[in-house]
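Quick one: structure tokens for this chain, please?
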Amino acid sequence: MTQAVPAFFLADSLALDFLNSVATPVDAPVDWLGDGEGLLGWLRQAQLVPEEVLLATRERAIPGEIDRLAGQARALREWFRGFVRDHMGRPLREADLAELAPLNELLKRDESFGRIVAAPAGQSPAFALARMHRWSSPEALLLPIAEAIARVVCDEDFSYVKACEGPTCTLFFADHTRGHARRWCSMALCGNRAKQAAHRHRRKAQPGG
């Protein structure tokens, strides 16, 4: 069913936000890709697919097709989760390329093309080259996700891809802070909890605490 709780976009990387599309915001796990409507909702929140494309895909889909697509998205997510867990904390190496074969197979399906469009008003030059997608099947909705994963693999220093240090947190993020000292998915979630726990521990350690 569609999740009422907004998805998390805390990772400073859309690909890692995709991993974080299953999490435990309070007590119970929430999977924003749990069904087809959840997948469409997550793509909308991530702004990876135009709204009109999402609506047209829902209207054209045969019964169960979008739910099956959500299953493919979850499988892609868990494959990428394994890759991140295996490689975070160090730079990627040429020898790691073979593990990316499933991603390259998905990227081969891309039917994107270039189009010259008007640049935003007042900017120079007057035109820009934009990348457009042919949304020829529901499976095409997975391609912007695959591209986001490819970009993080190619552009991100995996030395600074981290898992939140919250004891029950499952979220990942790219640490772009100065000094790369980020420890938490966010201060509002795990950072404040850790501060409160440390404060309680100090009080108990004091005489009469």
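The first strand starts at residue 22 and ends at 23.
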